[in-house]
Amino acid sequence: MMPSILHQRPLHNAPSDHYPLSSRYFSIPMRQNSIFSRTGLMVMLALMLIFGVFFPSTGIMGGMFSVRKDSVTKWRQYSLAQAVSYVAKNGTVIVCAVSESYLPFLKNWLISIARQKHEHQVLVIAEDYTTLYTVNDKWPGHAVLIPPALESQVAHKFGSQGFFNFTARRPRHLLQILELGYNVMYNDVDMVWLGDPFPYLLGNHDVYFTDDMAIVKPPNHSHDLPPPGKKGRTYICSCMIFMRPTNGAKLVLKKWIEELQAQPWSKTKKTNDQPAFNWALNKTAGQVDLYLLPQAAFPTGGLYFKNNTWMKETEGKHVIVHNNYITGFEKKIKRFRDYGLWLVDGHAHESPLGKL
Ligand SMILES: *[C@@H]1O[C@H](CO)[C@@H](O)[C@H](O)[C@H]1NC(C)=O
Ligand SMILES: *[C@@H]1O[C@H](CO)[C@@H](O)[C@H](O)[C@H]1NC(C)=O
Ligand SMILES: *[C@@H]1O[C@H](CO)[C@@H](O)[C@H](O)[C@H]1NC(C)=O
Ligand SMILES: *[C@@H]1O[C@H](CO)[C@@H](O)[C@H](O)[C@H]1NC(C)=O
Ligand SMILES: *[C@@H]1O[C@H](CO)[C@@H](O)[C@H](O)[C@H]1NC(C)=O
């Protein structure tokens, strides 16, 4: 009885919603049961504490902790192979990799995927244990942690070494999934699905990706890897990648891992994982079947949020929108709100994570 009460989160409209975990285990649903006055509740909690301390194996608390402990042990041992086989549909899994501070974005992204009826295929690669338990408590089996866990506080600042370390693990995770024999769709969680991307994954190519350049292309643009830009390389986004479990796709990932090792993070070059991905594409292009997705359907944030003319011209064609070309959680949330894409506000009930 107690665990289910504690897991309900009636405070979803509270200002703390951006950081849902801060109140996760402490939000007591007073409204739902008028017998629980504040004083009554304190007395009850005190009694439970006494029982928990003096009779740890009996009493309500004993039962509650054992449920929690079982679930902790269970999810700690949950492997990537088990997780992928549990969530994959038609041999395909949709993955993201998130740490605790990204949970509001995870939720927003999931609501948009649920609207396209693909949420059952989603696997959250949790970068810390809080994320692992939080997601699996609400949505059992949909989060996995590939050890070691990262220190979540250092992982979220764009351009920092923590962020680099965090993103540098991505190609390894993706390679493991391909080695298990599945197709994988990777997304950053600051994306929103407005349509179903799967019909756009035409043909039988190894790797599908989107261009992060904000320059407008003709509607019939080529699907080949674009020519290199100013820095001698392309600006393909590492934010959305679809791969088939082919040798070609695995080669790209292995090259990406090599490139990350060859050009590690430094204070002067505050890089992220995207340049390494582009060098990997450049160096494997001759051996791998690559496919550039249409710009109108998969626009960079530099276009979608910044060119109203283009936006109107391509109305109804957008499939996945990326909230990039801006940094900072609050700014991203505000921009999503301004464009009616912060679904967490009015559509939390559509999330498989509930009112997390
Ligand atoms: C799996 O494939 C079938 C047949 O092509 C299709 O009807 C179904 O929607 C697919 N399921 C998912 C989750 O993509
Ligand atoms: C990032 O990884 C490097 C190399 O493994 C390590 O030395 C460094 O401490 C890590 N930094 C952070 C902030 O995680
Ligand atoms: C796109 O269409 C234009 C005009 O219709 C044509 O000139 C051009 O060759 C086409 N480009 C490609 C890549 O098909
Ligand atoms: C790879 O990068 C080099 C250096 O910028 C460039 O000359 C070459 O054309 C690129 N290759 C491909 C396939 O894009
Ligand atoms: C904005 O989009 C329009 C229409 O596609 C295009 O002609 C124009 O060059 C774009 N503006 C910028 C600054 O890229």
From TrEMBL:
Per UniProt, residues of the Nucleotide-diphospho-sugar transferase domain are 121-336
Name the top EC class.
Answer: transferase
- Top-level taxon of the source organism: Eukaryota
Annotated TM spans: 40-65
Show the InterPro entries listed in the entry.
Nucl-diP-sugar_transferase (IPR005069), Nucleotide-diphossugar_trans (IPR029044), UDP-D-xylose:L-fucose_XylT (IPR052636)
Which terms does the record give in the GO molecular function aspect? UDP-xylosyltransferase activity
To which protein family does this belong?
Answer: Belongs to the glycosyltransferase 77 family.
**Which key words tag this protein in UniProt?**
Cell wall biogenesis/degradation, Glycosyltransferase, Golgi apparatus, Membrane, Signal-anchor, Transferase, Transmembrane, Transmembrane helix
Report the source organism.
Answer: Erythroxylum novogranatense
Q: What is its EC number?
A: 2.4.2.-
PANTHER family, per this entry? UDP-D-XYLOSE:L-FUCOSE ALPHA-1,3-D-XYLOSYLTRANSFERASE-RELATED (PTHR47032:SF1)
Name one matching Pfam family: Nucleotid_trans
This protein is called Glycosyltransferase
How the protein sits in the membrane? Single-pass type II membrane protein
Set out the biological process GO terms recorded for this chain's protein: rhamnogalacturonan II biosynthetic process
Location in or out of the cell? Golgi apparatus membrane
Q: Which GO terms describe its cellular component?
A: Golgi membrane
Q: Which SUPFAM superfamilies does the record cross-reference, listed alphabetically?
A: Nucleotide-diphospho-sugar transferases
